[in-house]
Amino acid sequence: MKQINVYEKLLNVQSALKVPKNQFNKFMNFNYRSCEDILEYAKPICSQYRLVLTTDNKVISEGDLDNRRVFVRSTARVTCVDSEKHVEVSACAEIPKEKKGMDSSQITGSAQSYSRKYALSGLFSLDDLKDSDSDELTQKSEKPKPKVTKQKYTNDIHSSVIRVVAEKGLTKDVVKSLEKYDIPDKHMKEIDEANDFSGLSTAEKTLLEDVK
Prior knowledge:
Layout: H1 6-16, E1 23-25, E2 30-32, H2 35-48, E3 51-62, E4 69-80, E5 86-94, H3 104-124, H4 131-139, E6 151-152, H5 155-168, H6 172-178, E7 181-182, H7 185-196, H8 202-211
Parallel strand pairs: 6-7
Antiparallel strand pairs: 1-2, 3-4, 4-5
Helix pairs in contact: 2-3, 5-7
């Protein structure tokens, strides 16, 4: 009997894995999935195909002493029990020097969680799923909301919002101004990410887009 290689096993996992958006952002009123959600749903399926799922983090820095920037590089890896071969994907997130309302350990932990989430998303190709697949389980119990006519949220408006949030954070004034728009889930997620990681470099954002 032909033995299934690690890539075929991973393909089977990617096809079977559905991770609902069980987390809810009360501030921006949208659902999302966390790193812990991905691990919870992925581990049983990986076990079924005799794959060991692991993640690890490494702190790296660049620049001179006066302009040093520190990043967390997370790697998500599946290793085949039978062949001991593996497939891995990495993602990075910058650790800002300070962030309002957080101490140093919280800032580091937040960056680690962010980079691990995108490494796992890249490994399992989660963002290839349609929104209806991931949202269905979280929306079954929700009561229908009354329809409210809102203004169209254009790409130009979104670009301006991202710049403001990345620089100043998601302030009450910004939230109030966004209430009049019909904002797609994808843009809501990007706004939240800009708020959480306002210090991300252009290179890092490009890398994270590659692993989505």
